[in-house]
Amino acid sequence: MLLQETNSPFNQEQVHLLNKLLPTLSDSQRIWLSGYLAASAVHATTGTQSGAVPAAASALQPAAVSKDVTILFGSQTGNSENLAKQLARKLEDQQYQVTLSSMRDFKPNNLKKVQNLLVIVSTHGEGEPPDNAMSFYEFLHSKRAPKLDGVNYAVLSLGDTSYEFFCQTGKDFDKRLEELGAVRLCPRVDCDLDFDEPAAKWMEDVIAKLNEKVNAAQAAPSVEVGSASGAAAAEPQVEYSRTNPFMAEVIENINLNGRGSDLETRHLVLSLEGSNLQYEPGDCVGIFPENDPELVDTLIQKLNWNPEELVTVNKEGEQRPVREALLRNFELTILSRKMLEQAAAFTTDERLQRLLAKENSAELREYTKGRDVIDLVTDFGPWNVSPQDFVPLLRRMPARLYSIASSCKANPDEVTLVIRAVRYESHGRLRKGVCSTYVAERLEPGDKVPIYVHHNPNFKLPADPDAPIIMVGPGTGVAPFRSFIEEREELGITGKSWLFYGDRRFRTDFLYQTDWQRWLNDGVLERMDVAFSRDSDQKVYVQHRMMERSRELFEWLEQGAYFYVCGDKQHMAKDVEETLLTIIEKEGGMDRDYWAGVIEVREAVAKEIEKARNADRIGGSLEARVELYCPEPLKSLLNALGDELHFVLITSYAEVHALEAKPADASLATLDDGTELFIRVVPLDYAKCVRCWHRWEDVGTNAEHPELCSRCVENVAGQGEDRRFA
Q: Of 248, 389, 491, 557, which is the most buried if we count CB atoms within 10 A?
C-alpha cells in the first residue's frame, strides 16, 4: 500500500522518504524493522532496558478513593430541590464533599469531572422535564454528551400516576446515563405524590452503596504501579497539524440568525475527542473544505471529461478520480496570471494570449478579480486538455481559518466556530464562499471534517487577569470575544470588560444574545454597547458607539485597558482605528500623528512576520528578531520607544531593534505618507528558557540557573519583571 498523508500519521516529507525506502526492503528486512520499532516503543514507554524494573516501579500505591458527590435536581414546584438538600445534609454528615446544583446552573462540561452523580428530578406536563432541567436534559441527549465510563449514578424520579407519562423524565435520565457508560449504584425509584417514604429509603440505599464502595476501596490491597513487566507499550499519540489534519465530527450546526434575516451565520461545534488538540482564546481553527459539487460537475461537463478518470493529486503519486480530486484537493474559485499563462497552451482562443500581454496587465487584474475556473473555460474555449494535464494548473485546496468562539478550559473536547455564509452575484453568476457554504449547505451533524488548530500568539487575553479589556467585534468578529468571556467565566475572572458589538438588525441578527445577557447579569462582562445598522434611518456602527462613549473609553485606556478589534479589516477595522485616534486626540490631548505612525509600523511588522511564518522561516511562537531601519522623522519615533519597542509594535516574544543602517535582505514597506521602512525578520537560534518558554540571548549565562534567562533568574529570586507576563 502506498503511504499517504491522509492514511497515515506522517507528514508530507516523511511519507515521501518512507515510500522511497519501503519498496527496497526484503521480507527479512521488513520483519527485522518491525521488531526493532516495537522493541524501541516498549523501552521508550518503560524508560528501562529489557528486563529491568526501576526501583520506583515496585512502589505500592493505595487505590484511589473518592468521597466527592454531585447532586443535581430538576424541580418545577420545589419538591426535588428540597429532597436534594436533605440528601446533601445526610452525605455531609458522613464526611462526603457534596456539590449541590440545579440542572440549569450546572455547567454541562463539568460532567466529565464528576465521579458520583445523584439525580433527583420531577416530570412536568406530558412527560417533559421541568423548566430548570430542560437545558441539561437536552445536552445529555445530544451528541455533545461525554462518555461517562466509571461514573457512579443513581436516579430518584418524582411524578404523578394520574398522568400517562409517569416519571418519564427520571426514566429518560436513568436510561441515558447508562447508555453513556455510567454505572448504576442502585435501582431508580419512581415516586408518586406521597414521595417521602420511598425517597427516604432511596437515600438510605444510595448512601449505603457509596459507603460500601469507599470501604471496599480502602480495604483493597495496594496496587503496584509503574512495573514494566507485562505492560503493553503505550501507543504513540498522533500529532495533528496543518499537514496531518484531524477528522473532527460535527456535533452541532445551527443557523444563529432569526427568521426573516438576509444573513446566515452558522454556529458550528466540532468534537476534538481523541485528538489531543489544545487551543487558547484568540486561536483559530483551519478547515479544509470541499468544493461545491455543482461547480465541479459543471467544469467536468464543459471540458468533456470522464469523472472517473484517474489523476495524480500529490508528489507521492497518489491517484484519485478527477471528480473526487476536484471536490477535495484543488481550489477552483481563484484565478492567477500564472494559471492563465499555463492554461493558454490548451486553447486556440487568441483573446487569452492578448489578455496576458504585458501592456494589458490592468485588464488582466480586472478579469481575475471575482472570477473562477468556470469563467476561464467558458470565456476562452474550445479546450483540448486532459484532466491530468489540467489539474497541475490548479493550486492545492488551502484551509480557511476561523476564530474560535469557545474556551478549551470550559469545553475540553470540543471547539465552536462562527461562520457566515458568503453568497453574491458577480459577472452574471451566483458565487459562493467555498468553506462557508460547505458548512452551511452540506455539513451535517455526524459528518467529519479535516481541521487543525492555528495558534495566534498576537491575539491573547492579558496575563494580568485584573487588566481591563475593550473588545470591538461586529458580526462574526465577535467570535474570539465569546471565547475570551467564556474563558474568564471558567477561571472566575471578573475584571473590567467592555464589548462593542454590532450587526444589521436587533431582532434577527443579535448573535449569542442570551449568552451576553447572562454574562452581564453574572458580572463576567461589565459593559456592552450595541449598534444595529439597519434598525434606523441613519446607519449606526460600532465606531459611532465608541465616539458616544469617548470619555469613559479613554479613562479605561488610561487605566491600562487592552484594546482588541476583530472583523472586517478592509473597512470596519480602519474606521475603528480612526475613531480610536480621534478619541485619544480629543480626550487626552495626545499627538495623533505619533500614534498613527506607531500603528502603521506595527501593521507593516505584522505583515512581514506573517510572510516569514508562511514561508516556514520562523515558528508559530514568533521566536524572531525584527530589524527596522527608516529615515527621519519615523526614526526618532522608533528611538523614542526605546526598550518598549517590541511591546508596542508586536504583542509576542519577538525582539524588535531599530538599526542605524539598512539591514541586508530587508523588505521594503512604504507607509501612507511615502516613508520607506525596511524590515528584516530573522529566526532566533538562542536557547529556550524553561520558565518563560521563549528564546533569549542571555539563557545559560547564570551558573546557578543555566536553564533560565536573566529576568527569570531575577524573578525566581523575587526581583525583576516576570517575562511570562511581559
A: 248
Of 667, 597, 671, 672, the C-alpha closest to 638 is 597
Residue 214 included in any domain: yes
Query: For residue 271, is it within any domain?
Result: yes
Query: How many angstroms separate the CA atoms of 373 and 367, rounded?
Result: 12
Pair 382, 527 in one domain: no
118 has which bridge partners?
71, 154
- Cell triple for residue 110? 463539568
Q: Poorest-confidence range of 307-316, 358-367, 558-567, 706-715?
A: 706-715
Greatest alpha-carbon span in the chain: 94
Residues 570 and 469 grouped into a single domain: yes
Q: Supply the range of the domain harboring residue 263.
A: 246-289+400-454
Radius of gyration of the chain (CA): 31
With cell 457534596, the residue in question is 98
pTM value is 0.67
Q: Is 155 domain-assigned?
A: yes
- CA 51, CA 310: separation in Å to the nearest integer? 52
pLDDT digits (tens, 9 = 90+) for 630-682: 776 666 666 655 544 544 454 444 556 677 777 777 888 777 777 778 887 77
- Look at residue 646 and tell me if it is in a domain: no
Residue of 692 and 562 predicted with greater confidence: 562
660 Cβ contact partners less than 8 Å away, ≥ 6 residues apart? 629
Q: Give residue 515's pLDDT.
A: 94
Contact 609, 642 (CB under 8 A): no
User: Do both 466 and 442 map to the same domain?
Assistant: no
pLDDT bracket for residue 725 (50, 70, 90): very low
| 74 shares its domain with 204 | yes
Bridge partners of residue 102, in order along the sequence: 73
| Residues 7 and 73 reside in one and the same domain | no
542, 565, 590 - which closes a domain: 590
Our count of domains for the chain comes to 5
Verify that 168 and 85 share a domain, yes or no.
Answer: yes
One-letter amino acid identity for 387?
P
DSSP string, 117-175: EEEEEE-BTTTBPPGGGHHHHHHHTSTTPPP-TT-EEEEEEE--TTSTTTTHHHHHHHH
**Across 12-21, 251-260, 357-366, 657-666, least confident range:** 12-21
Q: Where are the beta strands (DSSP E) in 646-709?
A: 655-658, 667-670, 676-683
CATH for 339: 1.20.990.10
Amino acid making up residue 504: R
State the amino acid at position 188 in one-letter form: R
Residue 273: CATH number of its domain: 2.40.30.10
Pairing of β 97-102 and β 152-158? unpaired
Q: Tell me: do 307 and 277 sit in the same domain.
A: no
How many DSSP H helices and E strands does the chain contain? Answer: 24, 26
236 — pLDDT class (breaks 50, 70, 90):
low
Looking at the structure, do residues 88 and 200 belong to the same domain, yes or no?
yes
Burial degree of 345 (CB within 10 A; 0-12, 13-18, 19+): exposed
From 549, 564, 590, the end of a domain falls on 590
* Helix (H) / strand (E) containing 271: strand 265-271
- Output the CA torsion sign for 213, 219, 225, 227: negative
User: Do the strands 97-102 and 655-658 form a parallel or antiparallel pair, or are they unpaired?
Assistant: unpaired
